[in-house]
Amino acid sequence: MATKDAPPRWDRKMQQRLARGEAAALGELYDRFGSLVHSLAHRVLGDETAADGITREVFAHVWEHPDTYDPKQGPLRSWVAALTHRLAVQRLRATETAALAQGGQGTTEELERKVRRASVAARADYIVTSMPAPLRAALELAYFQRRDYRQTAVDLGVTEDEARRRLRLGLQLLSTAHDAGAPPGAGGGA
Questions:
Q1: Integer angstrom CA distances of residue 173 from 37, 158, 179
Q2: 142: which of 67, 111, 162, 182 lies 20 to 30 Å off by Cα?
Q3: Residue 6 in 3-state DSSP?
Q4: Exposure b/e, 89-113, CB count within 10 A at least 16 = b
Q5: How many CB atoms lie within 10 A of CB 67?
Q6: DSSP class of residue 3?
Q7: Main-chain dihedrals φ then ψ at residue 6, nearest 5 degrees
């Protein structure tokens, strides 16, 4: 397992390739993280067109400034997610502030509550997509298919104790969505 001092090899190699200006590296990065970036931006903004714009901004920033990623701060995935979150929240604040200035409904406090709700929702999405597949599968069975831990155990082919453990750990991870407004590992000079 990688430590903070030794980022995954793929992350280091990708940063080096981007720094050399390899267009293929940007394509590979987009293939790997494009849906994550778009879904996080859409979750914050609630608008497909705006999410498309944020997705372009994120990958443009990565292409133009690969050196702003610090591998010692965490995985490239977390840095890209944090960058996405930051740009989407900036866009949401700017859009909502402009609406307030034009005599729209609401107050600054309402705007901040909306931004906070969007941030927590985006963080929860990030946590779910980042968690190991066994935890995610258990949560999906319990939440979307309304299975209890016994049914989840049967569906997954694991013991009831293992199903309870997966559900408990998955829920504990999800509960951290309220603890901060940015995806985990947010750092790296984004």
A1: 20, 21, 11
A2: 182
A3: strand
A4: bebbeeebeeeeeeeeeeeeeebee
A5: 10
A6: B
A7: -130, 90
**CATH code reported for the domain at 9-130:** 1.10.1740.10
Residue 83 has pLDDT above 90, yes or no: yes
pLDDT tens digits, 32-60:
999 999 999 998 888 899 999 999 999 99
In the DSSP assignment, the letter for residue 115 is H
Give per-residue burial for 33-56: e unless 16+ CB within 10 Å, then b: beebbbbbbbbbbeeeebbebbbe
Domain ranges in the chain? Answer: 9-130, 131-179
What's the first-to-final CA gap in the chain, in angstroms? Answer: 24
Residue type present at position 146: R
pTM for the full predicted model: 0.58
Do you know the residue count of the chain? 190
CATH number of the structural domain 131-179: 1.10.10.10
